[in-house]
Amino acid sequence: MNDISLSNSDVVELTAWRRRLHTMPDVSGEEVETAREVVRFLSETGPDAVVEGIGGTGVAVVYDSGVPGMTVMLRAELDALPIEELGDPEHKSKVSGKSHMCGHDGHMATLAAVGRALGRRRPAKGRVVLLFQPAEETGAGAAAVLADDKFRDLTPDISLSLHNMPGIPLGHVHLKDGPTNCASRGMKIILTGKTAHAAWPETGISPVSAVARLLPALSGISAGSVENDDLVRATVTHVTIGEPAAGISPAHGEIWVTLRTSTDDRMSALVEHAETMARDAAAADGLALALSYQDVFGHCINHPAAADILRAAMDAESVPHVAGQAYRASEDFGRFAKVSKSAMLFLGAGESHPALHNPTYDYPDDLIAIGARIFLAATRQVLD
Known about the structure:
By secondary structure, the protein is an alpha+beta fold. The chain has 9 helices and 17 strands. The protein has helices spanning 8-23, 32-43, 104-120, 141-147, 149-152, 208-219, 264-284, 304-316, 366-383, and strands spanning 49-54, 58-64, 71-77, 127-133, 158-165, 173-174, 178-181, 183-192, 196-197, 222-223, 232-241, 248-249, 252-261, 288-297, 300-302, 321-322, 341-348. Helix 1 runs antiparallel to helix 3 (104-120), helix 6 (208-219) runs antiparallel to helix 7 and helix 8 (304-316) crosses helix 9.
């Protein structure tokens, strides 16, 4: 498909741009400079519209044929992670404590490659929306985009995305119908009693016993598997009790636990179960209880029709692919399934490549052109 190929100079420039993004990471909700760089780089392609500030710091770049037709949205993420980079590439992060250890810099470069091609030739009908979404890592970004009035005029019929995945051979793809990423949320349990002198602990109300009962009970919640789309799991991630003082029986205890399930329906049941456990433990010891949640992700489920579009595109571009499996990790792209037929593919970063969120991770530049070829073939399939 020569009409959608990228030239060698394109690949060189897109690689250099990806590495520039790598040096200037912004964490979730703070992607102002990254968004500005996206607008600068893609303005050279002559898009028909650029919508800034969508969902907070997000950017939507539109290539419109001018002929009625479907809207295909391709999505990448703007945000980096609060991780100190320990690798030593020439394009190492220049921001202390922040880095692109999940490959979102590469995902952005892939969409920029698509933008270059669409700038040279629009689809025959309909339009393509390149969405550079904020705050994926916290689970807040997709929801914010969907709630933004500016998104209403961009609502897609088809939404497509990719995520690089170490452990899969370089350039190979895993793509399955149905559940692909788990629902998850961080649950904070706060137990409050009354302090006392450590010599007379019976005069206070301590959370120690309740915390001691809850830790094994929560950690023991485990059933099913992602392979069977019925995973249910709770992982304790943080615990504190009282102050670091030898003379005080504590009044305050916190447990942070990540709840994870294959589907949203299972998440509802798990939340109810975990909350009941916390309430019972607090009531038994006369403790006040406060519950809160953060990093809330819905499940990610591929629509068969959208997945078929990607399969046909990969066949056309001779990209090897298999069904693969679902992943325990969460991804907020699944929220776009509420407004469109959506699908995400997992593009292999290499079988021995450092894992996502590893401090020595770096995006394989060879994936930029491969991902762009898949997305371009998919958009041509729907809109030409």
